[in-house]
């Protein structure tokens, strides 16, 4: 090594860990020595993607935008912000868009928390909060779940100190699938200092909207930013586009940390077109919810269901998940191991198409034999 880059990083990267994504099909095939024709046969249920894809109108809009990619995109994403503002009954200045909701979360954490500051989240909340806090040089404060899965909102409020700058909640949470109703979330917000930034991550909102109703414009806290994504119900994970809705002055501060042109032209065009085809999104959500019920019933019958989930995924529990995951992969089905969450005995599996889910259940029945 010519230079010890690790010791030169600021904040010290020795304390940081990269995000571990779901294993791509190509990687599984390479690991198993399968090439070419087998590609279509492996099923990735590891990244909570939408198995039905985006509205064809969004695909067509991206195709049209592709002809113009020698131009920079609209750096302010004006049309997308206006469309989102209209959808949520807010002003465009109350919308911040990002390269996935991941970027929105990171921007807000970086803008408001640095060395000496604390970011409070649930210990088994979506892992990006603590990774982003650490990357910003702040200290993640991880609050244990009382029941091992569900955010303990009272304990989280009690963990807020004068050094707390940001609080993150995932509702529903990934990977535990738990959900808090609007009254519980509002009571939590009421217990927080007014100057704390609250990131309410609703990446799976569309899968629970029928239960919770709309939170934007209903939940109140000066520092509240409700974060949503086009990656799940809208089926645009590969284009990377998400957004936050909150106080315009707060978002204006975060905007100063934003890269120019952070949302690419294809993503902006596709997201705008997707919003105009809400029926497509709703139909996909309904199909996923129906399949989730079927999967959870089958897992319960096998004695493997950890708990019912509120997103587009299911959670199973088994003492030998490493073996189980290996056997599922041998059968061409990729689940998501949850070791990084300290949940080594759990596996998360995304709800796929009926055929993919049947394949998973088949593989699982074989995989648990003798374990
Ligand atoms: C709870 C939660 N928040 C945010 C994200 C980030 O999604 P994206 O960056 O694709 O919008 C995910 C992705 O899995 C998630 O599960």
* Count of discrete structural domains: 2
Structural class: alpha/beta
Query: Strand fraction band?
Result: 5-15%
* SSE pattern: HHEHHEHEHEHEHEHEEHHHEEHEEEH
Helix residue percentage: 25-40%
Number of helices: 14
Indicate the mean pLDDT. Answer: 95
Uncertain regions: pLDDT < 50 for 5+ in a row? none
CATH architecture of the largest domain: 3-Layer(aba) Sandwich
Q: At the first level of CATH, what is the class of the largest domain?
A: Alpha Beta
What topology, given as strand order, has the largest sheet?
A: 2-8-7-6-5-3-4
**Termini gap:** 45 Å
CATH superfamily label of the largest domain: Type I PLP-dependent aspartate aminotransferase-like (Major domain)
Query: Largest sheet at a glance?
Result: 7 strands, mixed
Give the beta-strand count: 13
Put the structure in a nutshell:
This protein has helices spanning about 5-10, 25-30, 55-65, 80-90, 100-110, 130-135, 155-160, 180-190, 210, 250-255, 265-275, 280-300, 320-330, 355-370, and strands spanning about 45, 95-100, 120, 140-145, 165-170, 195-200, 225-230, 240-245, 305, 315, 335, 335, 345-350.
Topology of this structure?
Elements: H1 5-8, H2 25-31, E1 43-44, H3 56-66, H4 78-88, E2 95-98, H5 101-112, E3 118-122, H6 128-135, E4 139-143, H7 153-159, E5 164-170, H8 182-190, E6 197-201, H9 209-212, E7 224-229, E8 242-245, H10 248-255, H11 265-275, H12 278-301, E9 305-307, E10 313-317, H13 321-330, E11 333-334, E12 336-337, E13 346-350, H14 354-368
Parallel strand pairs: 1-11, 3-4, 3-5, 5-6, 6-7
Antiparallel strand pairs: 2-8, 7-8, 9-10, 10-13, 12-13
Helix pairs in contact: 3-11, 4-11, 5-6, 5-10, 13-14
Bound molecules: pyridoxal-5'-phosphate.
């Amino acid at each position: 090594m010519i230079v010890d880059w690790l010791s030169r990083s600021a904040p010290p990267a020795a304390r940081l860990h990269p995000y571990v994504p779901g294993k791509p099909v190509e990687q599984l095939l390479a690991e198993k020595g399968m090439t070419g024709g087998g590609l279509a046969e492996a099923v990735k249920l590891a990244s909570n993607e939408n198995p039905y894809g985006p509205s064809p109108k969004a695909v067509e809009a991206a195709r049209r935008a592709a002809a113009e990619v020698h131009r920079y995109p609209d750096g302010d994403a004006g049309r997308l912000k206006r469309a989102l503002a209209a959808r949520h009954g807010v002003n465009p200045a109350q919308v911040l868009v990002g390269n996935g909701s991941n970027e929105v979360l990171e921007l807000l954490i970086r803008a408001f928390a640095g060395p000496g500051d604390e970011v409070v989240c649930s210990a088994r909340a979506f892992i990006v909060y603590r990774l982003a806090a650490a990357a910003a040089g702040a200290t993640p404060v991880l609050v244990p779940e009382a029941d091992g899965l569900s955010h303990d909102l009272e304990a989280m409020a009690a963990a807020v100190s004068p050094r707390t700058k940001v609080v993150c909640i995932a509702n529903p949470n990934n990977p535990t699938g738990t959900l808090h109703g609007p009254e519980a979330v509002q009571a939590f917000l009421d217990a927080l200092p007014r100057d704390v930034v609250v990131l309410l991550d609703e990446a799976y909102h569309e899968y629970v909207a029928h239960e919770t109703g709309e939170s934007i414009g209903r939940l109140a806290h000066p520092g509240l930013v409700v974060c949503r994504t086009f990656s799940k119900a809208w089926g645009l994970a590969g284009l990377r586009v998400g957004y936050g809705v909150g106080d315009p002055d707060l978002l204006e501060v975060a905007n100063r940390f934003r890269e120019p042109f952070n949302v690419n032209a294809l993503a902006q065009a596709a997201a705008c077109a997707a919003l105009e085809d809400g029926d497509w999104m709703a139909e996909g959500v309904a199909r996923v919810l129906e399949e989730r019920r079927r999967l959870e019933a089958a897992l319960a019958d096998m004695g493997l269901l950890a708990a019912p989930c509120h997103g587009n995924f299911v959670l199973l529990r088994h003492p030998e998940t490493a073996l189980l995951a290996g056997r599922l992969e041998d059968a061409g089905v990729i689940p998501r191991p949850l070791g990084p969450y300290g949940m080594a005995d759990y596996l998360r599996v995304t709800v796929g198409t009926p055929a993919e889910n049947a394949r998973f259940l088949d593989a699982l029945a074989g995989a648990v034999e003798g374990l």
